[in-house]
Amino acid sequence: MQRRRLLQSSLGLLAAAPFAGARAQSPWPNKPIRYVVPFAAGGTTDILARLLSPKIGNVLGQTFVIDNKAGAGGVLGADMVAKAPPDGYTILGSTISTQAINPVLNPKIPYNAAKDFAPVTMIGTTSNAVVVPASSPFKTIQDLISYARANPGRLSFSSAGTGSSQHMGGELLKQMAGMFIVHIPYRGSGPAVQDVIAGQVNFGIDTLVATAAHIKAGTLRVLAVTAGKRVKGFESVPTIAESGVKGYDVVSWQTVHAPAGTPKEIVARLHAEIASALAQPDIRQRLDALGLEPSGMKPEELAAFEIKEREKWAKVVKEGGIKVE
User: Fold this and answer.
1) Contact of 273 with 60, CB cutoff 8 Å
2) Which CATH topology does 127-243 take?
3) HEC per residue, 248-267
């Protein structure tokens, strides 16, 4: 009797084995995917996550859950993803801030940008813009610079956070234009832009993605773009370089990363679907209106690009003696 029970038990285990194997090898994705945005709602990274997620989710057959984890200029959200299981169910809406500027500005951040992430793709690049409230007396970037030079420390500017491209763009403008202005960091573009509109700060430096709707609505006036050349869809807006600060050129970039160790086939699938979404006419039209140039860069290309960007911003930080606020 005991031998029969052992035999039946063994046969039961053998019969269950193929099903257990099938469960272990279930195709990805078989549950919702968390898309961590390391900034407050309403900013560039958040807007792009909400624009692309439905497109990618429809193809993959799963929902993308947007999770805003703002704080420390993107560091909190990025660190969360760096420490997440590398199973393809957590991705990061990464940026020039999380992957290039913060790592060289603050060596004490809790993650290693070069080692703790698997690059997926670049969504695209966008110029920042210098914007003022509609009621501001400043009509041009030279008006602002002249006033700042004559009144050191009297002007304040907002950014999406310490270590953001907007913050660093302002620091570079201070260096190149020879003026002293006060930086006010926020927990993302959304609240930063709202305080510019409300006149709580004198001006803001933020992406065209975050400011375009307000510029077109007339609640913000744009003085200049930070890119080295004029931006498609905003051709009437001069660059800072052509407004008297020669050589000035700063663009922000938006990317997607997964935790290091995420299977290469999952990274490849994510890249393929994001690149496909970026090529769709309705997405292209929306990105044009937001002043963003789509990319779809391959993972290995993004990894090489980020190395060069970290070298570039390390030089700016060193030469400017910029410290974490």
Assistant:
1) yes
2) D-Maltodextrin-Binding Protein; domain 2 (3.40.190)
3) CCCEEEEEEEEECCCCHHHH
